[in-house]
Structures are given as structure tokens and as C-alpha cells.
Design goal:
With about 375 residues, the protein is of the alpha/beta class. It has twelve helices and six strands. It has one domain. Helices cover about 40% and strands about 10% of the residues.
């Protein structure tokens, strides 16, 4: 599967990049929360550029006053557990890290670690290497970003569903991807097509433009994906009529995924945060969606991932909040909980999808 080794690379470096590689898992790491706020321990998934060299516990908050303020709010809201204060040796940042771990576990941490390689952190900056929010010194940011990309293969599932209804494959695919895209970034055939279009624009005026070999993304998209997805009410009418038990279970679970992902609204970022992120690259993909192993979508991802860390990327999810505002802090953790539940539900759905055992990264 696509891999990039960046363990010795500093962010914003434009030199020394290695080409991504497509290869299967050679070894799988045991899933564990290795450090505070980590959604998933390092696995051997689709390796993206990593933000190494920053101890996560030191990036939870930048100011002890804010840490104490947040710790107090978390205890008052019954989000934090007092016994963790002793485990943290009375250190506010460590206490917040333990609270994040508990919150993740309560919202599907085990399932998340099975398919995703993500980290959560709380910091006074909206990105790991960005500037602090000087305009709002009391504001913190709960962020989620991948250290590697998971992978899901749709081909066998779409073939199974097509035997039950011709529009079911496209319906399933778009429900799945849309649900995850509400909270994280999925790289799919549309990203690969956009890259191909950009490459065409770049070489349009080259004298030997017709000599360039561009990925045939369309050739990797199953014909069933051309169908218009079913409307929600149509899918609900079909739900109880599938003769194939696995097809019925897949549809039931993707509908649940869609429902879970809508339990909260993704927080909107104001212009100040937008300015702080203005020099960032787009978020790194948390999941690569392919139709077949080593298809042209995977190849496009493989090539595009070479430049994903030329500039520091935005996190997949940024939740700003005031640690002294109990209601605001509660909403931030509730939103984060919905993001976790969405990832966990997607992970369980991937466990049901034929042909995806290879992409398990933990457990």
C-alpha cells in the first residue's frame, strides 16, 4: 500500500522526499494508547508524512493556567475522573490527556484503533506547527489528524450489493464516504480524478504533452458507480427485502453510520482561525478508498502523497473552545465524541465488507 517514510524529515521540508510505495502490511502493531490523546497507536497502514519529534503530552496545552481551567471544567461536567488526577501526578496537562483517553474509549476507541491511525490533541494552536491564536488567548483547539492512512476496498462489497439492486452499490458508497467526510478526510476516486485534471492543466502547454502517461482513473471505477444513488426513503423501503443476509447487514450498518455522523454539526471555523491556517496544505487523508487492490485510485494517491507534507497540513478536525466556558467545553467534547463514534461505526462496517481483512491495522 502507499507508504512515505518521513521519520527524519522536518515539517515544511521540500527536500529528501521518498516516493510512496504500495505494499501490504508486513507487520501489525498491537493496538494501544501509547501517549496522551492518541486515538490509535502506530500501525502499518498507508504511511503519510508524520509530525514526529513533538511529545504529545507537551502539546496538550501551552499554558498551565489554561490547563487548570480546562481540568476544572472537565471535572465539573463529569467528563473527567478524579482518580486520574493522582495517576497524572497532579499535572494538569497529563490529567487532560488521560481524560481524552477515557473519552475516546467511551466512544469506540477499540474499534477506531482497528482501522484508523489517528491522534487527538488539545493545544492553543489549531495546527501542530502553527501559530497560537493571539486574538483569542483563552481559546483552545481539540484537533484530530492521521499519522497514517487506513484503507477500505469497496469492489467486492459493490458486487454483492449490485445483485440485490442496481442502484445499491453507488448508494452504499456515497453514504459511507459522506458520513466519514463530515469528520475526517477520505481520499476517493474524485480526488484521483481532480489530480488527473490538474496534471492535464499543468502539461497543456508542454511541447510533448501527449507523451505524458496519466492515470486512467475512470478505468478503475466500476460501472455500477455510474448509477444515481437511491433516495433515503427508497433505501428504507428496500432495507427489509434483501434475500442475502450480509447485504441486509451492510445496508443496515451504513444507514446507522449515516445517522451517527449527523448527531452533531461539525464546528465552523471563524476568519481568525482561517488566517492561522492560511499557509497550511489540505488535511492528510485519514482513509484511502479504493475499488480493487493496486487500482488507479491507489496509484494516484501514491503519487500525490509525495507532496502532502511540503507544507504543514491542516488537521482533519478542528474544534475551537474556551476552557473556562463549561457549556462550550461540553459541546466540544460532545462533537469529538460524535466524530469518534462515526469512526468506530465505520470501522465495524469495514469489518463486514468482503475483502478488507488485509487492511486491519490493530487487533
Amino acid at each position: 500500500m502507499p507508504r512515505i517514510d518521513t521519520r527524519r524529515r522536518t515539517p515544511r521540508s521540500r527536500a529528501g522526499r521518498e516516493r510512496a510505495r504500495l505494499q501490504p502490511h508486513a507487520a501489525r502493531c498491537t493496538g494501544r494508547l501509547a501517549s496522551a490523546g492518541q486515538l490509535m497507536a502506530q500501525g502499518s497502514g498507508l504511511v503519510l508524512p508524520r509530525l514526529d519529534g513533538v511529545p504529545l503530552v507537551h502539546r496538550l496545552v501551552a499554558d498551565d493556567t489554561l490547563a487548570v481551567m480546562l481540568a476544572k471544567s472537565l471535572v465539573e461536567m463529569d467528563i473527567a475522573v478524579l482518580e486520574d488526577w493522582h495517576r497524572a501526578e497532579h499535572d494538569p496537562s497529563s490529567f487532560i490527556g488521560l481524560t481524552l483517553e477515557r473519552w475516546i474509549e467511551a466512544h469506540g476507541g477499540e474499534a477506531i484503533r482497528r482501522r484508523f491511525i489517528l491522534e487527538a490533541r488539545i493545544s492553543s494552536s489549531p495546527s501542530a506547527w502553527g501559530e497560537e491564536d493571539q486574538a483569542h488567548p483563552q481559546r483552545l483547539f481539540l484537533t484530530v489528524e492521521p499519522t497514517e492512512a487506513g484503507c477500505v476496498m469497496f469492489g467486492p462489497t459493490l458486487q454483492l450489493l449490485e445483485g440485490n439492486h442496481p442502484k445499491l452499490p453507488a448508494t452504499f458508497f456515497h453514504l459511507f464516504v459522506a458520513a466519514l467526510n463530515r469528520w475526517t478526510r477520505v481520499y476517493d476516486y474524485r480526488d484521483a480524478e481532480e489530480r488527473r485534471e490538474n496534471l492535464l492543466d499543468w502539461i497543456a502547454n508542454e511541447p510533448e504533452a501527449n507523451q505524458y502517461e496519466l492515470p486512467d482513473v475512470q478505468g478503475s471505477i466500476p460501472r455500477c458507480m455510474k448509477q444515481v444513488p437511491l433516495k433515503h426513503r427508497e433505501l428504507l423501503r428496500l432495507k427489509g427485502k434483501f434475500a442475502n443476509p450480509l447485504a441486509a447487514k451492510l445496508v443496515e450498518t451504513v444507514l446507522r453510520l449515516d445517522q451517527v455522523s449527523r448527531k452533531a454539526e461539525r464546528p465552523q471555523l471563524d476568519d481568525v482561525v482561517g488566517e492561522l491556517l492560511s499557509d497550511c496544505n489540505p488535511p492528510l487523508p485519514a482513509l484511502l478508498s479504493i475499488f480493487a487492490e493496486a487500482d488507479r485510485i491507489a496509484a494516484a494517491f501514491d503519487e500525490e502523497s509525495e507532496g502532502m507534507m511540503e507544507v504543514t497540513p491542516e488537521p482533519n478536525l478542528i474544534i475551537p473552545f474556551d476552557p473556562g466556558d463549561r457549556e462550550g467545553a461540553r459541546q466540544a467534547f460532545d462533537s469529538f465524541g460524535v466524530a469518534c463514534e462515526t469512526l468506530a461505526t465505520a470501522s465495524r462496517l469495514m469489518d463486514l465488507m468482503p475483502g478488507n481483512d488485509k487492511w486491519v491495522v490493530s487487533g
